[in-house]
Design brief:
The protein is of the alpha+beta class. It has two domains: 37 residues; 84 residues, Immunoglobulin-like (Sandwich), CATH 2.60.40.3230. Helix content is 43%, strand content 38%. The chain has a three-stranded antiparallel β-sheet, with no helix packed on it. Strands 4-3-6 form a three-stranded antiparallel β-sheet. Keywords: Signal. This is Lipoprotein. It comes from Paenibacillus sp. SYP-B3998. InterPro entries: FxLYD_dom.
Amino acid sequence: MHKIFFIATICVLLAACSNSQLNSSPLKTNVDQRQALEAKQRANALAIADQKIQDHIEEEKRIKQHDLSQLDITDTKIQEGEYDQKYVVGTVKNNSGKELKNIEINIMLYDDSGAQVGETVASVTSFEKDGTWKMKAIIFQKEATKFKIKKIDSF
């Protein structure tokens, strides 16, 4: 009698387990589909956000380029200082209509024959709207007698 009861109990348990697996299978499929849809939506949102960031970066680059074209550099020359030190000096006017940040002016240095002997940089962290900057870049190459402003950057 105990054997029959035991076998019957096992049969009932097996039947119940197979029914629960049949019932949970569509539920599991729905959960998997929902998770896949949510993952796709997150991926789309990330792609949109990434595109907006790239657009913003490009706009910032465009604005900086426009602003830098509004810098007026005048009165440039090589000036001798104390202890036989030389500098490239000049006056820079900010005509951009707004404050500019982290301006760098790259200057190529040449000797009397026109051969490049080095380079130097003049920089300013904050350049006020409509401001004037007395640029001064040190020259380490004693043989430098000429210069050319090569590039103006903003970071």
